[in-house]
Design a protein that fits this description.
The complex is a heterodimer of chains A (113) and B (111).
Chain A lengths: L2 E3 L4 E5 L4 E3 L2 E3 L6 E7 L6 E7 L6 E3 L2 E6 L4 E6 L8 E8 L5 E3 L3 E6 L1
Parallel strand pairs in A: 2-12
Antiparallel strand pairs in A: 1-4, 3-9, 5-6, 5-10, 7-8, 8-9, 10-11, 10-12
Chain B lengths: L2 E5 L2 E4 L5 E8 L5 E7 L5 E9 L2 E4 L5 E7 L2 E6 L8 E8 L6 E2 L3 E5 L1
The chains are: A mainly beta (113), B mainly beta (111).
Chain lengths: 113, 111
């Protein structure tokens, strides 16, 4: 069975601070994909990134960066210089051999002006 | 480009009434389609998924059902709503069976 754990329930920061969201996963599949989604107050889940289990290169996209470490089964997400528009619930998810997305419980990020 | 639509956006229904939520995808063929429910303050629960017309897999036994009458149309239904059916319903599509893209959702309140 697959499991995704986001230990941080809520994070509150002041604008321009960096925020790191933790994600730890469990799977027996050798091939799997990891994802981050953003859910703003409007409710729609927005796809942010996908990484496959064979690609441990870190990735940066603007103010977003992701750190995938297979040795610790972690896929952490950092928002640099946070902005109010970053306020949302962020979900980490995993898809393996059964092609079903297993979601973490989500981390609510609040960025205060 | 692909787009996904859901309607209605918001729905308030009495207990015991029927339900029909619709999801349609544009710009792709033979997508995998999914229905999720998100209860208030909680995570996402996969309800149904479909890999083709008329093919529905149920993840959670309940009073909801799903149908896929056309390639890019996915419908979530109930004959009699319960209070516990309240929540935010999200439809998603995928072509590679891993990456899922979500619609805007339907917020259902059962009174």
């Amino acid at each position: 069975a697959q499991k995704v754990t986001q230990a941080q329930t809520e994070i509150s920061v002041v604008e321009k601070e960096d925020v790191t969201l933790d994600c730890v996963y469990e799977t027996r599949d050798t091939t799997y994909y990891l994802f981050w989604y953003k859910q703003p107050p409007s409710g729609e889940l927005v796809f942010l990134i996908r990484r496959n289990s064979f690609d441990e290169q870190n990735e940066i996209s603007g103010r977003y960066s992701w750190n995938f470490q297979k040795s610790t089964s972690s896929f952490n997400f950092t928002i640099t210089a946070s902005q109010v528009v970053d306020s949302a619930v962020y979900f980490c998810a995993l898809s393996g051999g059964d092609y079903k997305l297993s979601f973490g419980a989500g981390t609510t990020v609040t960025v205060r002006a | 480009s692909q787009t996904i639509h859901q309607w209605p956006a918001t729905l308030v229904q009495p207990v015991g009434s029927p339900l029909s939520l619709e999801c349609t995808v544009e710009g792709t063929s033979n997508p995998n389609l999914y229905w999720y429910r998100q209860a208030a303050g909680r995570g996402l629960q996969l309800l149904f998924y479909s890999v083709g017309i008329g093919q529905i897999s149920s993840e959670v036994p309940q009073n909801l059902s799903a149908s896929r009458p056309q390639d890019r149309q996915f419908i979530l239904s109930s004959k009699k709503l319960l209070l516990s059916d309240s929540g935010f319903y999200l439809c998603a599509w995928s072509v590679d069976r891993h990456t899922q893209y979500f619609g805007p959702g339907t917020r259902l309140t059962v009174l």
